[in-house]
């Protein structure tokens, strides 16, 4: 099947881009917005740190369990209809989570996590199909949108709790408006309802789960996700224990999210120019590592470490999403790789918030948790040297650890 981007009128393609970016705006904010109000939620229900960590883990478990199903849903119902249904499910999940009950809190979190998982898997496949010549550009645009939305959400959560007597339930529930609006704006795409997930005849018939390269991409994304969701879930608590007020901690939480926007802007020209992304992957993981070590060594400079970590982690995410398209030989393979990377990666990430909450309860502080995250970032940097190689799944390529290349590459 030929990419739709070559036959789609400009106005329709513009609507498609707007729809994609609106979907992207919903992929982080409903999850990351919990961090600033997690202390309020703990107070409301009497949760300890481990129990609160379970709440932060549930979306990641949903990502892991639902991600392998997304490609099958798209084959059966079409990409466009599946994404529309996911947006409706997301709206429902946000509303249920904000009901003010314990069952609603946990049940709604599972629902919205399942909806986000479907969107997470299908967007890289959609970009490879409709924007095959602009995968890096579109990936960066939707990553920037995710980051901006998450940053705004983090920055306004504390003020939103003061705008209603409902407190944190109102602050979390208001984001259902964005999800519902996104679903409405996606309606024009339902006329297409395409099923572009068939395997191309020229693509090597390599089972995705048996590909070393697929596992390297999965590890690079999964380790980044592990640390990212630990930081997003617990950073406000870490900062408050270091002497910051709740409002200041929320602002720094938002600053970290805002710092994730910058790599998206830089990645558009950079990734497109590089045929080899090994150095970019290694250096991005190293920047995140510097931020994590900084939180331990010089907590008074947390504003600097938020920028370092946000920049590095976001660059890693953009590279991981780009790898899902660049390392695949077809739309079908891109969907399979996306499903695998996000299923395994988020299953790994799901351990993070609960494990770190337990470490805090055991040691009475956050240093052990941050040291663990720093060690994981080192391992991630090594996997970046593998995942960044200029090859595709099924292609013959050497497996020894490659040296870090120059940050300069040939034009595609």
Report what the structure shows.
With 412 residues, the chain is mainly α. It is 75% helix and 0% strand. Helix 4 packs across helix 6. The N terminus and C terminus are likely disordered.
What is the molecular shape?
Answer: globular
**Radius of gyration computed on alpha carbons:** 20 Å
Please outline the major beta sheet: none
Mean residue pLDDT: 83
Strand content: under 5%
Structural class: mainly alpha
Helix content: over 70%
List unreliable stretches of 5+ residues.
1-6, 196-204, 406-412
Number of helices: 16
**Number of DSSP-assigned strands:** 0
Please report the distance between the alpha carbons of the first and last residues: 23 Å
SSE order, one letter for each helix or strand: HHHHHHHHHHHHHHHH
Annotation keywords:
mainly alpha; disordered N terminus; 412 residues; single chain
Provide a short characterization of the protein structure.
The chain is mainly α and 412 residues long. The protein has 16 helices and no strands.
